[in-house]
Design a protein that fits this description.
By secondary structure, the chain is mainly β. It has one domain. Helix content is 9%, strand content 44%. The chain contains two helices and eleven strands. Strand 10 (115-120) and strand 11 form a beta hairpin. It is globular. The two termini are 16 Å apart. Residues 1-20, 36-78 are annotated as: Disordered.
Length: 143
C-alpha cells in the first residue's frame, strides 16, 4: 500500500490521547493501533473507521469514544507503560496509507494540547514534536 501523508499523536485538553491524520492523495477512512513487537497474527490494539465524507485531515480520541465522525470498531485496550505502540491511517480499499507514528505512554505524558508527535516520510524513524500547523505542513511536503 503506497504511503501518502502522516499520522501523529497528540493529547486533548483533558490529557487523553488523540490520533491525528493528514492524507495527501486521499482522505483516510480508517486507523489502526497496534504493538509492532507483537506476533504478526495478533489482533490490533484498537481500530477506528470514519463515516460520511472524510476530509484529508482529522483528529479523533483514542479512548474508544466516538468523535469527529470516527467510530471505534475495536475500542483500544488501556495503554501499558513502556510498551511501544504504532498508529497509522489507511483508506478502506487499501489504496493509500499514512506514515505511522510510534509512541509509548511515557511519550504522551510529555505532550501538551496542541503539540503533535510525528515522523516525516523522509525520516520515518525520527520523531518530532511540533505544533498542529507544523504537522500539517510537513505531511504533504514534497508530494
Amino acid at each position: 500500500m503506497p504511503v501518502s501523508g502522516m499520522t501523529g499523536i497528540t493529547v486533548g485538553e483533558d490529557g487523553r490521547p488523540m490520533g491525528v491524520v493528514q492524507g495527501c492523495e486521499a482522505p483516510m477512512d480508517r486507523a489502526v493501533l497496534h504493538v509492532p513487537a507483537g506476533p504478526p497474527e495478533a489482533e490490533p490494539e484498537g481500530s477506528w473507521s470514519r463515516s460520511g465524507t472524510p476530509d484529508k485531515f482529522a483528529t479523533w480520541p483514542l479512548s474508544g469514544a466516538d468523535g469527529d465522525g470516527w467510530t471505534a470498531d475495536s475500542p483500544p485496550k488501556p495503554l501499558v507503560p513502556r510498551v511501544t505502540y504504532r498508529l497509522y491511517g489507511a483508506t478502506d480499499d487499501n489504496s493509500w496509507s499514512t506514515g505511522a507514528v510510534s509512541f509509548t505512554p511515557e511519550d504522551l505524558s510529555t505532550l501538551k494540547p496542541g503539540q503533535v508527535r510525528y515522523a516525516t516520510p523522509s525520516a520515518p524513524d525520527v520523531f518530532t514534536t511540533g505544533t498542529l500547523e507544523d504537522f500539517r505542513r510537513a505531511a504533504c511536503e514534497g508530494e
